[in-house]
Amino acid sequence: MRNRRRTLLRILIVVEALALALAFGRTRAAPDLTVPIGEIFSEATSFAEEHGVFRAYDGDGRLLGWAASGSESGYGGPMLLVAGIDTLGRVAGVKLVEQRETPIFWRMARAPEYFKALVDTPYDEIDYDYGEVIGVTGATISSGAIVASIRESVAQVAGEAFDVNLPLPARPFEFGLLEIAILILLIAGVTAQKVTGPTRQRIRWASQVAGLIVIGFWKDSPITLAKLAALMSGFFPDPRNSLAIYLLIAGFVVTSIAWGRNIYCLYACPFGAAQRCVGLIAGKGLKLPPWSVRLMGHVRNLIVFAAIFMAFLTLQPALSSYEPFAALFSLHGSTLQWLLLFIVLVASLAIREPWCNFFCPMRSVEILLQDIRRVFRKPSQAKSHD
Amino acid sequence: MTERAKKRLSLSDVAAFLFVVIVDAVILGVLLQNFVGSR
Fold it and tell me: Is the pTM for the entire model greater than 0.95?
């Protein structure tokens, strides 16, 4: 009973501290759009806004052009851009106002070149191919968000200034091989709970290898702390093109609470599979001293708490990600992420799945969910656990 | 050297300590790089 009360207190402290950080992050005022519009129309001295479209005037009161903002959800949250169109109907400039992507994305993306290439293009002849922006594989959502934001702002200006209706493209639900694979892997994980021994191991190996290929090397879309932090911040990606992340996180949360062990990590996580494959080379795992296992658990929990706290405070969920997944699956990462990947893979030769057991942030989230499960179960059910 | 002292200085303890310190330092470095890089 005392244990349950202590666990409940711990959960409440963590949740309240994070809620306070998020509340603080959310108090930030909306950006003043006349600043980036003034940068697009450098001679502008005054602005007038009607129906979300700004008119920019010079000192003599002459109209220089129109500008509007567009917003679309990227990987880390909504992105806000402003596009300006001059009086001849050509693009005067595009400015990024707000973004929540990782620094590595901006280092790889060719967004500035794309923005520059758009200047002087007639508003109805813009090339909305996000392949021009992308520069990096595995970042289609963020690159697509840049292009969709520009398209939205240009459509607004076209409607208001030129009375031209530029229809936004229809967005069908993307339910492809990735989504099907995730469902199959989660179902395989659930089914494996009904069997024991070698059959369960066989199912686990098969689903992990499939996860490694599909969720890892092909699509590079494993669960990351950034994705979870984005959802917790209230930045919900469009389910029509991000169904996979909803399926993965639902599988993770539901099975953690229902069974106390999540199916995602055991049966679908591609990075866990990669470590298991490396571990096959050396055979039996080395046992670490118990004190170090406890220490690593505490340090990991602290790091995860601090990362989410900072992500909420700055309202930049993408920054909480420290996993080396992109380095392995998309071959993109900072020097430190490459170093982290190297250490973890080398350690996998001697220690059983070191990332999963000691450093993965999702392990801390899983422990928190298990604590919640323990607290809210009936005392008779919880007794055997406490 | 006593048995207890020998145990305290075992190679696996030193290796485990170094492992914890190095990996966690790299992780903190990645996070710092993210937050500083975004400013």
Answer: no
